[in-house]
Fold this sequence. Notes:
Elements: E1 7-8, H1 18-36, H2 45-52, H3 60-71, H4 73-83, H5 85-105, H6 109-137, H7 140-170, H8 176-179, H9 181-192, H10 208-226, H11 236-255, H12 271-299, H13 304-332, H14 334-351, H15 360-388, H16 392-431, H17 450-484, E2 490-491
Parallel strand pairs: 1-2
Amino acid sequence: MSAAPTIAARVTHIPWTPERARWTGGLMLALLVAAMDSTIVGTALPTIGGELGNFSLYPWVFSGYLLTATTTVPLWGKLADLYGRKVVMFVGLGIFVGASVLCGMAHSMLALVLFRALQGLGAGCLQPVTMTVIGDLFPLQQRARVQGLFSGMWALAAISGPLLGALFVSTIGWRWIFDVNVPIGLAAAVLLWSFNDRVRGGKVSIDYAGALLLTAGVGLLLFGFGSGNSGGQLNWPLIAVAAAMLGAFVVVERRAPSPTVPMRFLVDPVIGPAVIVAVIVGTLLFGLTSYVPLLVQAGLGGSAFAAGAAIAPLMVGWPIAGMIAGRVMLRAGYQRLALLGAVVILAGSAMLLVPSPITPVIWLGGAMLLIGIGMGVLNTPLLIVLQSVVDWSDRGAVTALNQFSRTIGGAVGVALMGLLLETRMKAEAAARGLDPGRFADPSRLSTQTAAGRSLVVHGIQAVDWVFVVLSVLAVVVAAMIVRGSRGRSVAFKT
């Protein structure tokens, strides 16, 4: 019988000094400010749209930020490997804070959209580089514990962002949802100023062509999928152009001396499956946070507070489970934890298909808690191991690849789920003898209309099946990780 899978690591403990604590605090603030800006805007958007006008650009206040924050992640990770973490972190922080000031000064919707895209460019740096520095600062055993603190920043951003947005709108004005980033960003810079860094050295090569093709390809792909929101149809010409650009990106990456996304990572027996898991987790995360609140409000007739209460357990369960998983990973093995986490996610997703035996919001909250726990158990150990199987010079790129995979999986997945939801609702409306055009946008249905609520519930049942299928895929990949690692140890690199 083969031995249980282990992680071959030189486990050491680095004492907590005031300087190390200061750096960790600065990293937590940098991650918090970037994460919070993807959640704080939502509650203020109606007010912003009413004041600035040009309502057709309304969705791009969020979408423009998400697009640049997603597509630039691999490039920032590569720059951190080439030029060092500190200089790249400060460039990204400077872009983010400067763009926040511009957002707070915007006097037209077009200007706000452009400044938000610039802000996303900075956020695309802060998120992966922050997680990379954690891998540099702490050896494996400590990192497994510290990672939970940084997962907590995502939970804090998810919970506090909407509340702060509502508070600023109702008191000192919506512009403060951007201006608040300035003191937080400056505090992070002060705490990180003395951070000691190293650079790779030697000849520096930047894959600008690959980065440009990736950004353009992903952007057009999202446009092509998103174009169906009002008509239930994909924009095939845009998708074809996007596919061609992404194909060209793969060709360029294979030939580039220093590629933005090294293709060798994708065939690595440890990194490859972890990237697949990141795509699945991202699709689940973005899908649940987009469609569970819609179900509660437009389908069940609940309030915004009830929608928040239903989704909050997901954001609470993830960091708590991630912290625990990090602590037991070295004893239990990351492979077993990955399988356990995937099974728990599947259990939570299956609850969405079962008629609620209790108050629906409470039942949904229980499902979200299970899924959040599963994501923490599944995702956190894989990220830690990802950073542990590559050299320092590749850690930024592989961390960025994990972040990019999760975000792009979510962005594309949510767009396709929206098409499925709209198509299912319109088909059901036609089957009931109703006008399908009245139900093209489920978010605008009156919560007082019984027919509208019924159609939303019917449509989201199809999305729930997507969640279950994705969870089954996560279990399959996790089982492959366990099976492929039998009798093999994972070498830890510093």
